[in-house]
């Protein structure tokens, strides 16, 4: 498998209000006040050569119920764990929800106005209102 990289990869969210953001200010306020704000807006320099080295040498390792990715980048061992990602992105929700029952998901989707209820766990942005589409696009 060959990885491809584009200028649009590693894009950050711009959570500033402007005339163009009318109708989305509530989401912008929410995201600016949420624990994921830093993860959405941080813009580190990431070199393509380092990314390629990482993915060409990565291996999944497991010990003591901790799964980690281990790779060599510029002949240095790089270890990535969930805890390291949470720490780097300032995500303080380690004790958050691990699993959400399907019934709860469908109830909340209906409350959000999702236009095409289903029993399957496949969702399409097209069936969300424009504000929810914006939020989904920002997060994904």
Whole-number radius of gyration?
19 Å
Broad structural category: alpha+beta
Shape: extended
Strand content: 5-15%
Order of helices and strands: HHHEEEHHH
Number of helices: 6
* Cα end-to-end separation: 23 Å
Order of adjacent strands in the largest pleated sheet:
1-2-3
Please give the share of residues in helix.
Answer: 25-40%
Number of strands: 3
**Most strands sheet:** 3 strands, antiparallel
Low-confidence stretches: none
* Mean residue pLDDT: 78
Helix/strand layout:
Elements: H1 25-33, H2 37-41, H3 48-57, E1 59-63, E2 66-73, E3 76-81, H4 82-88, H5 102-111, H6 130-139
Antiparallel strand pairs: 1-2, 2-3
Q: Can I get a quick summary?
A:
This protein is an alpha+beta fold and 140 residues long. The protein has 6 helices and 3 strands.
Textual characterization of the structure:
This protein is extended. The protein has a domain at 99-140. A three-stranded antiparallel sheet has the order 1-2-3. The chain is an alpha+beta fold. It contains six helices and three strands; from the N terminus they run H-H-H-E-E-E-H-H-H. The protein has helices at 25-33, 37-41, 48-57, 82-88, 102-111, 130-139; strands at 59-63, 66-73, 76-81. A hairpin with a 2-residue loop joins strand 2 and strand 3 (76-81). Helix content is 36%, strand content 14%. This is Xylulose kinase-1. One of its GO terms (molecular function) is kinase activity.
Keywords:
single chain, 140 residues, alpha+beta, three-stranded antiparallel sheet, 6 helices, 3 strands, extended
């Amino acid at each position: 498998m060959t990885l491809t990289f584009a200028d649009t990869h590693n894009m950050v969210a711009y959570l500033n209000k402007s005339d163009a953001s009318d109708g989305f200010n509530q989401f912008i306020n929410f995201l600016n006040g949420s624990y994921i704000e830093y993860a959405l807006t941080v813009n580190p320099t990431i070199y393509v050569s380092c990314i390629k080295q990482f993915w060409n040498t990565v291996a999944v390792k497991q010990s003591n119920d901790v799964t980690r990715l281990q790779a060599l980048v510029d002949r240095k061992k790089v270890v990535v764990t969930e805890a390291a990602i949470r720490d780097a992105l300032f995500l303080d929700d380690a004790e958050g929800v691990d699993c959400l029952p399907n019934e709860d998901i469908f109830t909340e989707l209906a409350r959000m106005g999702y236009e095409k209820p289903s029993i399957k766990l496949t969702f399409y942005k097209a069936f969300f209102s424009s504000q929810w589409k914006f939020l989904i696009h920002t997060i994904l």
